[in-house]
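Hi W., the NDP complex you wanted:
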Amino acid sequence: LKRVGFIGLGAMGLPMAKNLLKAGYELHISAHRNREPVKELKQGGATEHTSLGELAAKSEILISILPTDKEMDSVLLSEDILSHLSTKSILIEMTSGSPAMMKKVARAYEEKGIRVLDGPVSGGTAGAEQGTLTVMTGGRSEVLEDVRPVLNAMAKQIYLVGEIGAGKAIKAINQMLAAMHMVASAEAVALAEKLEIDKEMVKKVIGNSSGASWMLMNKIDSLSERNFTPGFKLALMKKDVQIANDEAGEMPLPFAANTLELFKDAEKEMGDLDFSAIGKNILP
Ligand code: NDP
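Structure:
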């Protein structure tokens, strides 16, 4: 399986697609509003197609990493793609979307005999560039084994979590925690500044204590510098915390509910900044 179609060439998709070119895959892409990634990939050897149908027709493996459920619905369920993909091809769906949308997409593809793997990722843009992402897959193990070489070109850890939708579910739990840890880290930095504790001391001492988190250790510098360049857009994190809260339904998750309110308020003005910009409303 050497011919890969790639849809969604954003902060994550572009570096992931570049790693596929580097690994020797024949890459097929289509028009995106932002021309830069298309130009860059074409220079690296990718072929551009004028329609998603044409792209689908060329794809033995089709990879999508789109912003939200809405684009999963409008792009992946379009007749243009569904009618042009061969029944021998496999869709790897890597968006951080909802489990319900993942199941809806999988049903439409599987009805046509096309195999599907649910596979959202973690590791950020740095992990995407370095090819060290974590992939949280849902689906059948035979499907995973068929696409494992492609995933290996982009990722370091690949986990099979459960059935279709389970990848999206565990990703939502990860994102809920990541958002909470970001709020907690911003509060820690704010208090450390008020109490005149140097950030290097925070890293050294709390880094070796029970309050440490991956988020605090990795974001303390940018929070201290008030550097909110994305990265990972705040609007996308709000979407993730929303998915976690929706999945919880009536189950009370007070910290998650509170975190969602903070991200909803911040999204209006800061949706396109990095999600660490949630700290703007906390830091002095
Ligand atoms: P970006 O906003 O940077 O990129 C989104 C991409 O999707 C763009 O290439 C955009 O193309 C394309 N797109 C949007 N709408 C459509 C459409 N209707 N048809 C075709 N293409 C479309 O997002 P990210 O790369 O940051 O995130 C993608 C997904 O990965 C999200 O679900 C996010 O939550 C998740 N994620 C992000 C991480 C990060 O650190 N950024 C880390 C882990 C997961 P166009 O030029 O046309 O707008």
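The radius of gyration is 20 Å.

W.
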